Amino acid sequence: MTSGEQPRGPHSTFTSTLVNAAVIAAEEKLGVDTVVLDLRELIDSFDALVVTSGRNDRQVRAIAEEVERLVELALGIKPIRVEGLFQGEWVALDYGDVIVHVFDEETRDYYDLEHLWSSASAYRPERLR
């Protein structure tokens, strides 16, 4: 680990900061029904999913772009990979330990990640307003 680099992994400050930045970004762009799924007890690939929705493709893109902006401000990193930004139905931002999914409402209902990961601990943050 280089100097200044934050440790990663379960219960790390890095993961908590990333999740919090994603949740705040969703809130600032009026994301709908944001949920954090803690997967540390279920898989080794990553620690958490943040799932939120926008009401249309423009809002989905705005939320995803705000997640990128706030995570970069908080941690100085960009996602490893971004998928779906141009279509605006389902944007996945892969940060390694945390994956952020921003859906339009219809696509979120169809894929139903919360049901797929129903054995995970789920946290629904209170609205900040």
Describe this entry's structure for a reader.
α1 (13-28) runs antiparallel to α2. The chain has 4 helices and 6 strands. Helix content is 36%, strand content 25%. With 129 residues, the chain is of the alpha+beta class. A hairpin with a 3-residue loop joins β4 (90-94) and β5 (98-104). The protein has helices spanning 13-28, 57-75, 105-111, 113-116; strands at residues 32-38, 48-54, 81-83, 90-94, 98-104, 121-123.
Write out key terms for the chains shown.
129 residues, alpha+beta, six-stranded mixed beta sheet, disordered N terminus
Fold topology:
Blueprint: H1 13-28, E1 32-38, E2 48-54, H2 57-75, E3 81-83, E4 90-94, E5 98-104, H3 105-111, H4 113-116, E6 121-123
Parallel strand pairs: 2-5
Antiparallel strand pairs: 1-2, 1-6, 3-4, 4-5
